[in-house]
Here is the input.
Amino acid sequence: MLTDFSTETVNNSLQRRLDRFELFDSMDSPALNLTFVLELPDFRPWCKEQGLPPFHVMLCAVLRSVLKVENFRYRILDGKVIRIERLTPSFTVKNQHDDLNFAQFEWSDDLREFVARGLAAREQASNMEALNRKYRSMTPREAKEQVFVTCIPWLNFTSIQHPTAVLAQPDIPSFAWGKFRDAGAGRLELPFSVQAHHGFVDGYHIHQFAEQVATELTAIMQA
Here is the structure.
C-alpha cells in the first residue's frame, strides 16, 4: 500500500486525504467511474464562425480544466504521489479501416496552434494501419503527464467502462464524451464520463471539473 505523500509537490489538501487514499488504494480497484449529462454553452456556432472543429476546441477546454482542478493533477510514480505540471494531449481516432488508433501531440497555450497540432496528429494517426505506439517512447514520468481521451460522437451513451493497464492503479484519469444535443437557450448537452483514482478524486471534484469545462469554453469564446 502506497502512503508516501512526502514529496514537496503535494499540497496540504492532499496530505489531509491520506486516510482516504489508503482506504481506496488498498482495494482491488480504486477507480471511481461516473457518467453524467454535461451541460455546456453551445460553442458550435462560434466554432463555425472561427473555422475551428468543435471536437478540438472541446479537447482544449477539457485539458485546461484538468490542470485547473487540483485533484486531477495527482499521479503515482515509483511508490510516490506526484503532481504533474504539464499535459501531453492525446485522443483516439478511427483509421481508414474504422479501427481505433491513438493521436498524440505537443501542448500549446494558443488555441489555434493547439487545434492545428491536434488536426495534424489526427491526420497522421488516422492514416496508419498499425497501432500508433508513440507513447512507448515516453519516459515513465512523461507517461504520467497525460490523460486518456475518447469521443463517441455517434452515441448518446449512459455508461462506459474504461480500460485500465493495472487494475489497482487507475491514477491517470480517463474521459469520454458522446453525441451533442441541443438543450435550448444557447446550451447543449452531451454524455460525459470520468474515471479517476478515488484516493484523489471524489464526486465533488468531478462536479468542479464539469463546471470548469463550461467556464473554459465561455472564456475561449470571449477571448
